[in-house]
Design a protein that fits this description.
Layout: H1 2-24, H2 27-47, E1 52-55, H3 58-67, H4 84-94, E2 103-108, E3 113-120, E4 136-140, H5 150-162, E5 165-177, E6 187-191, H6 200-212, E7 218-223, H7 225-237, E8 245-249, H8 255-262, H9 265-284, H10 296-299, H11 305-316, H12 322-329, E9 342-347, H13 360-363, E10 369-374, H14 393-408
Parallel strand pairs: 4-5, 4-7, 7-8, 8-9, 9-10
Antiparallel strand pairs: 1-10, 2-3, 3-5, 5-6
Helix pairs in contact: 1-2, 5-14
């Protein structure tokens, strides 16, 4: 009994000493408070900032300030994770993945193939009961992206709240009928690696959907390489598109600068090598379909995206060299020719799209273009709040912009 009492008294003594000696004395408390105040001051002065809004015309700038105020509000990155690579790596794991049921459709293309579309029809929409006039949004994912990516699911969720309909293009898979008599009824999925300069399939899909719902407001959003593809399409076609407006997120403006940044040692280790292996895996499953065009053994030895593009993508899509492909794929070259309102969100700390490659001066020359540049956010990150699970700054920009275009687009 005495031993138990002694142990209890000793435990209480230790607890009291730790509390008094470290915090009660004021030393520990002062350190904690001092560090917290210093960190808060640094965060509020150097991390939390309003984005830079760059537009080529007063009309679009005023429109965004009035109807898409998020682009002028201070962006507060997650206080414990604001660094570019941390934001980029964390988002897929920390953000929620809402449950979405898609309807799949296959549409024919001019080369005899079929493209796979995932539809979210939103038939329960109470805002737009008439399906023929329900606003429709096209989503284009990033490299190796699917309709199950968290950023895609969040866009679907926000669009559902607005009453809109969405559809998603699977850019890496294309269906072809086998033409051999013995196998006339069989189909093969052929991987179409992301060539963001080849816009033929995208144009086919856009006109197909517009023919289904010619009276519905029609918009598009592209993420990362999906945004590059979208901008290249808009730059080529100018005003001759059924789209009312478009938004892009974390676009790589200059392909040469992007690959150079991703080949820096840390970026290669964290991102480049992984994405390269994903691309290799997607084409290796069907290597028998490419052996006559490319040296698949050499493709499988690629250690970077540049090497993969040099040995596979540029060859399959008929470019004379990797430089020709990268020149054609860089959307900054066609930004002057974009003929509809486009909002482009980029973070200047994005290792996939370095700051010096963002075409600020070119954007100022086109009244249809608005660049929204945050100081932090990484690549498709834009995490905000203490625990950024339900939404991000990028999600809010998407929601406000598409809603503004649908409801107030006539002001532009």
């Amino acid at each position: 009994m005495d031993l138990e009492m002694l142990s209890r008294e000793f435990s209480l003594y230790l607890e009291h000493q730790v509390r008094v000696g470290f915090l009660g004395s004021g030393v520990g408390l002062s350190l904690v408070l001092g560090f917290s105040v210093a960190y808060a001051c640094y965060y509020l002065s150097s991390i939390a900032k309003k984005p830079q809004l760059v537009t080529g015309g007063e009309s679009l700038s005023r429109f965004l300030q009035d109807h898409c105020p998020v682009v002028t509000e201070t962006y507060y990155p997650t206080i414990w994770c604001w660094e570019s690579r941390g934001q980029t790596l964390l988002r897929p794991f920390i953000t929620s993945k809402p449950q979405v049921q898609y309807r799949n459709e296959l549409i024919k293309t001019t080369d005899g193939g079929q493209i796979s579309l995932d539809w979210f029809d939103n038939n329960k929409s109470t805002c737009y009961l008439d399906a023929s006039t329900r606003p429709t949004v096209l989503l284009l994912p990033g490299l190796t992206g699917t309709s199950k990516e968290s950023y895609i699911l969040h866009m679907v969720q926000f669009s559902e709240e607005l009453g809109y309909r969405l559809y998603f293009i699977h850019p890496q898979m294309k269906n072809y009928h086998n033409q051999q008599p013995a196998c006339r009824n069989t189909k093969k999925w052929t991987p179409r690696t992301y060539c963001c300069a080849n816009t033929e399939d995208l144009e086919t899909v856009i006109h197909h959907v517009h023919s289904l719902y010619p009276s519905a407001p029609f918009l598009a959003a592209g993420v990362s390489m999906g945004g590059m593809l979208l901008l290249n399409y808009l730059g080529k076609i100018g005003t001759k598109t059924p789209l009312m407006a478009a938004a892009t997120f974390s676009v790589g403006w200059n392909t040469f600068a992007c690959t150079e940044s991703l080949e820096k040692p840390l970026n290669w280790l964290l991102f480049n090598y992984y994405l390269t292996t994903c691309l290799q895996s997607s084409v290796n499953k069907h290597r028998h379909m490419f052996v006559k065009q490319v040296d698949m053994d050499l493709v499988m030895k690629a250690k970077s995206i540049r090497e993969f593009d040099k040995r596979f993508t540029s060859v399959v899509f008929g470019y004379r060299s990797i430089d020709d492909y990268y020149t054609d794929a860089s959307p900054y070259r066609r930004l002057k020719s974009v003929g509809i309102p486009v909002l482009c969100l980029n973070s200047v700390d994005d290792v996939f799209s370095p700051r010096h490659a963002i075409p600020i001066e070119t954007a100022k020359q086109n009244p249809n273009v608005a660049l929204v540049l945050t100081s932090y956010g990484g690549h498709i990150g834009f995490l905000e709040g203490i625990w950024p699970r339900q939404s991000t700054y990028m999600d809010r920009v998407f929601k406000q912009f598409v809603q503004a275009i649908v409801e107030y687009g006539h002001e532009l």
